[in-house]
Structures are given as C-alpha cells and as structure tokens.
Design a protein that fits this description.
heterodimer; A: 369 residues; alpha+beta; Gyrase A, domain 2; Alpha-Beta Plaits; Elongation Factor Tu (Ef-tu), domain 3; 6-stranded mixed sheet; 20 strands; B: 131 residues; OB fold (Dihydrolipoamide Acetyltransferase, E2P); 6-stranded antiparallel sheet; 3-stranded antiparallel sheet; 4 helices
Chain lengths: 369, 131
C-alpha cells in the first residue's frame, strides 16, 4: 500500500460525512472512526440495540468451477467438505510455514461456487496467493470493488431487519446465509455473521445499492436507538468477544495454533498449504501462545506495549491488541507470551509507557452475550 | 470568542489551557483536544509537591482510542491535583474548562505566561491547523 496515495473510499463515504463521522485513513481506506455520539455510546448501542457498520472495504473473492471446493480446501485449514449450500465457516489461509496469510469466512453458495470474504488490507496479497496456488484449478474473481457490505449487529438486529425483507430471518442460523433475497427492494445476500460478539447480520449488495440500504437500515433501527458504529467501537466490540484482528493478533509470522485458532485447523481435511508445518508445530509443542489478559492495575494496554515476566522481569512478548472493555468493566488485551505464561491465572506485567502494570491471563472471550 | 475557547484563558500549541489567579495557574486540556481524543477513560495526574519545568510531561489522558501526554504550560510546583478525575475521567469530556481541570501549579517564572497564546491567537492557530 502506498502511504502517500489518496485513501480509497467506500460507497458510503458521503453518508458518513452527512452523519458527522470523524474519518481516518485506515490501511489505505478512508473510514469512519466514530460518529458524534462517541465510541462508548456506539459500543453500548451495539450491545443493547443495533450497531451498523460500513464494511464495504472488505474483499469478496468468488471461486467457481468443478474444482472450486478442491481449490478452496487447498488454501484453508478448516474442513470445506463439511459445508453445504448456504453454510459459512471461519477459517484461515496459511503459507507453507504455517503462518497466517489471512483470516477468512468461506461461504458455500453451490457445490461449484464458493465466496471467500477477506480483510480489506489483504485483498491484493490474498488474490495473488490464491491465483498463484490454485489459479489453474477454477475461476477466481475478485468482486471487491463492485460489492458492498453492511454489518447490522446487536440484540435488536433481527427485529429491525425483519420489516425490510421477506427473507426468513428467524430460521437463519449463525454462520448460515441466504443468497438472492431482498432488503429494502434491493437484491442482497444476508449472512448471520459478524465481528462483535452479538447476534447480527452481514448484508452483501451491489456497491451502487449500498447507500440506499444504509439509509433504510438506519431508519429501521432508529426507533430502538440503533446507531452507525465506527472503527473505534468495532475494535472494543471485537476484542471483548476475543475475535482476532489480522495485522495485530494474526500475521504471516504467527500460526493458527499459536493464535488459539486450533479449532479451525482440521488436519484430516486435506492437503492444505501449511499442513506439514502445522503438524510439526503441534507435535513439537507450542513455544508461545496468544494470551488474553485483564489489567489488574490502572492502565490501558495498547498494541506494541512490551509484556514482562513478573518473576524474572524479562521481556517476554508484546501486546498485539489492547483497549478498554466497556461491557467487561475492565481493561483488556491480547499478546503472545511463552506457553507456560498463557495459562489462566498466570500473571504478566504490561509496560504502559514506563509503568509496569499487573495483568492476569484469562481463558475465552472477555464478554459473552 | 466561541464557548469552546474561553476568553479568560491562555493556551499552548499542544492544546493545554492555563488560568492564572495570582501566582497560581490551573491547567487542563482544551475542548479541541477533547474532541480529538473522544471518550476519556483514564487520566494520569502528577503528584502534589512535584516540581515541573514548562513543556515537561505533567500527566496523560487516555481515551478509548489513544493516549496523549499533557505538558506543563509553565514551570512551578504542583500544589493541587484534581483527584476526582481518577474515578471520573469523563469530567474531562463533559467540562474540560471546569470539572475537568487537571492540576494547579504555583508558577516560578511568571514571564512564561507571555509565551502562551490568548484566546484569539489560539482560535487562529486552530484555524490554521484545520485539515
């Protein structure tokens, strides 16, 4: 990404400006970081009512052809064979060393058509990787520019979306999706997925329809105090739910086993890229793991802060994500530490700008709905 | 002047404000700084009795998304800090020029006040630095 280049904009850029959003360059995209009500308010709206997110910047890559399933399985660690039409799954794609190229959601549309949703900052890298590895196996088409994506999350999401669509939302289960339905008169796909730890939907549309849908959804959730939500609250929401962020918690240098994503690695799924390296790592045992921690003292851990071992004082890792947890009532974070210190109850010291603050390792999500 | 930049205060380029009352100067961060930071979730204050030089870090303000140092607008001794901010950092958002004050400094060199901006200059400064 050329840092000097003008950031790219999503089809909702004007809508954000009209709402008074504070816009920032996020990985080459001009995105809303917050709206005038502020990050904490947006966070709370998503936990108690509805939060709406512009995720048009994310990438959509279609795999089509008789060998599409085989191609996708070569790329990802989770078991593609267990998907059926209308079923989606979370997974990662690895490099031959087992490092994570990207974390993804794979949607099976039909036996010969899969959609992979990739992180915005990785679109070019992923497409290059996909084409290089399996480009001759099936058709791979990057539809990111022509596809809009709006995330509609929160306990009131279904109730607010229902009046806009005839799609059977009540029977749509998590990680399932409905292609070829309508919302507010526009053709969309509705998936019951999200990145907040709440129930909710992600709505795929043609890019030119995104603004109409955004406005319709805003109107539909206004009655319950639903709100547009920027990147700031997106980060507090996802971290409370302990969902990883690529570029921070997951990188080309970290493996899914280290990242606590062993559940998306199915060694018997097939000969996927990175399988050998991951098998070796599993058999040898993990040297380091991604630990989740809550701060015991006053301090907010942030990306890049050093982590020390309280018993030796030695630096043992870095914070990969850290923030306040508004719904947890504690400051929370993630970081890679030696495996013995990644156990629940272990104590760490986080160096918050020169002040070493005690933190305790916890298992599982910080927040559960 | 607008209510965001009160007339009776002095300002720094780092968006601190200073209110002089005799030899005492009360300091805090400006509405502009607060708007940039968003919801403040933690305030670190200096210790009472601490002696500071102008431009030294006197504390920090953390919001959900960022941490920002606060610099002493003038040199002197910290005679009082606004300890309620430890438990109620939101005062900084709600009333940055009142309940959100951070520390009171007994100035050692009143001439330093001449180096600060008045409200008109600070507003001009903000205009020049608008994106």
């Amino acid at each position: 990404m050329n840092a000097a280049a003008e950031p790219r904009i999503t089809p909702l850029c004007q809508a954000h400006r009209r709402l008074g959003a504070k816009m920032i360059d996020f990985g080459g995209w001009l995105m809303p970081v917050s709206y005038p009500s502020g990050i904490l308010d947006e966070h709370k709206a998503t936990r108690t009512a509805v939060g709406m997110f512009d995720v048009c910047h994310m990438g959509e890559v279609h795999f089509r052809g008789a060998r599409a399933a085989e191609a996708v399985q070569r790329l990802v660690t989770n078991q593609v064979g267990k998907l059926y039409d209308g079923r989606a799954m979370y997974t990662v794609a690895c490099n031959p060393k087992g490092g994570i190229v990207d974390d993804l959601i794979v949607y099976r549309v039909k036996a010969d058509h899969f959609l992979i949703v990739v992180n915005a900052a990785n679109i070019e890298k992923d497409c290059q990787h996909f084409v290089q590895q399996v480009g001759s196996w099936c058709e791979i088409r990057n539809a990111s520019d022509e596809t809009g994506l709006i995330s509609f999350q929160g306990p009131q999401a279904q109730a607010c979306l229902a009046p806009l669509t005839r799609a059977p939302l009540a029977t749509l289960k998590p990680f399932h999706f409905l292609p070829d339905v309508q919302v507010a008169g526009r053709p969309v796909w509705i998936a019951r997925t999200g990145y907040t730890g709440e129930d909710g939907f992600e709505i795929f549309c043609a890019a030119p329809d995104a603004e109409h849908l955004w406005q319709s959804l805003l109107d539909a959730c206004a009655g319950v105090d639903g709100k547009p939500v920027g990147l700031g609250a997106r980060d507090t929401l996802r971290l409370e739910a302990r969902l990883s962020l690529y570029g921070n918690d997951l990188t080309d240098e970290t493996t899914p086993l280290e990242a606590g994503l062993g559940w998306v690695v199915k060694f018997d799924a097939g000969d996927f890229i990175g399988r050998e390296a991951l098998l070796r790592q599993r058999d040898a045992g993990l040297a380091r793991k991604l630990a989740g921690f809550v701060m015991l003292g006053r301090g907010i851990a942030r990306h890049g802060y050093p982590i020390h071992d309280p018993s030796t004082g030695a630096k043992i890792g870095d914070v990969t994500s850290g923030t306040v947890g508004p719904s947890v009532g504690k400051n929370i974070g993630l970081g890679y530490v030696p495996a013995p210190l990644a156990r629940a109850g272990a104590l760490l010291l986080v160096d918050c700008r020169g002040k070493k603050i005690e933190a305790e390792v916890v298992q599982g999500p910080f927040y559960r709905r | 002047m607008s209510e965001n930049v009160p007339n009776d205060l002095l300002y720094t380029e780092d968006h601190e404000w200073a209110r002089q009352e005799g030899s005492l100067v009360t300091i805090g961060i400006t509405q502009f700084a607060v708007d940039q930071l968003g919801d403040v979730t933690q305030v670190d204050l200096p210790n009472e009795g601490e002696v500071l030089k102008a431009h030294e870090v006197v504390g920090s303000v953390e919001s959900v998304k960022a941490v920002s140092d606060v610099y002493a607008p003038v040199s002197g001794k910290v005679v009082k800090v606004n300890s309620p901010l430890q438990d109620s950092p939101e005062y900084v958002n709600e009333e940055p020029y009142d309940g959100g004050w951070m520390a009171q400094i007994e100035i050692s060199n009143p001439d330093e006040l001449k180096g600060l901006m008045n409200a008109a200059s600070y507003e001009e400064f903000l205009k020049e630095h608008e994106d």
